[in-house]
Design brief:
The chain contains twelve helices and eight strands. The chain is an alpha/beta fold and about 270 residues long. It has an eight-stranded parallel sheet.
Length: about 270
């Protein structure tokens, strides 16, 4: 029997959450932060806490959408030598341990330098589900799609508050796995409240047009945020708050701190 493709693994993860009558939880972790050994523990903790999908950031020195928390995490990871190979190896470790699907989050420049087909092949070997590449507009995605689609890899696309309605529907149509709705203007971070009134309106418009799962990210930081996000959509993505939870620690202490927040978020999405 052929191994499930990345898109199929994402579809199965969301179907499982629906069958259990709960929202999906998608934690974001930066690969190699604060070091690779701790990164492995954090990924294991996320899987143990019931993450349906894990978003694994490829550290990059010139981020477009990352706020100070994730940017600092990326700098720590880069200082420790985390590169594409190390990030993909961490994703493979999740697969080998029977964990949930892993989506890489990367800006396009490192992927072009590495080679898009080479990168896609590495994702397949690692059992990763695909990647989120936020700085490639839909009109310029042909090369990425040519590398990803034949290999069954997903490319979820982001819809921002500033995205016009017609373009938002086009992005939703073109997304694989799920549609990523950005909760508010600006970069990632846990210090500003999501705009749930806007989210409710945007999700309703998307629901009328596409049947793909919808995930809410950027600024989702607390159990209350997760509860509201999964009332409106199918999944909550939590990144900066998780990194803030273990900041300044490493090893078992970092995993324990992350696990405490993940337990709160897990309870909230049920």
């Amino acid at each position: 029997m052929a191994e499930a493709s990345g898109v199929e693994r994402l579809d199965a993860a969301f179907a499982n959450a629906r069958a259990q009558r709960r929202g999906a939880l998608i934690p974001y972790l930066c690969a190699g932060d604060p070091d690779r050994a701790t990164s492995r523990l954090l990924l294991a903790e996320a899987a143990h806490a019931g993450a349906d999908v894990i978003e694994l950031g490829l550290p990059y020195g010139d981020p477009l959408a990352d706020g100070p928390t994730i940017a600092a995490a990326a700098q720590r990871a880069l200082a420790g030598g985390t590169n594409v190979e190390a990030t993909v190896a961490l994703a493979a470790g999740v697969r080998d341990a029977g964990g949930p699907p892993v989506l890489l989050f990367s800006y396009v420049n490192p992927l072009i330098q590495y080679g898009l087909d080479r990168f896609a092949d590495a994702l397949v070997r690692a059992g990763a589900a695909g990647a989120i590449v936020p700085d490639v507009p839909i009109e310029e995605m042909d090369e990425l799609r040519a590398a990803f689609a034949p290999r069954g890899l997903a490319l979820p696309l982001l819809i921002a508050p500033s995205t016009p309605p017609a373009r938002a529907l086009a992005l939703a149509d073109a997304s694989d796995g799920f549609v990523y709705v950005v909760s508010r203007l600006g970069v990632t971070g846990a210090r500003r409240e999501p705009d749930f009134a806007w989210i409710e309106e945007r999700v309703a418009a998307l629901r009328a047009h596409v049947d793909r799962p919808i995930a809410i990210g950027f600024g989702i930081a607390t159990g209350a945020h997760v509860r509201r996000a999964v009332e409106l959509a199918d999944a909550a993505i939590v990144g900066s708050a998780l990194i803030d939870a273990y900041a300044g620690t490493s090893g078992a202490e970092a995993a324990a701190r992350a696990g405490a927040l993940l337990a709160e978020l897990d309870a909230a999405r049920r």
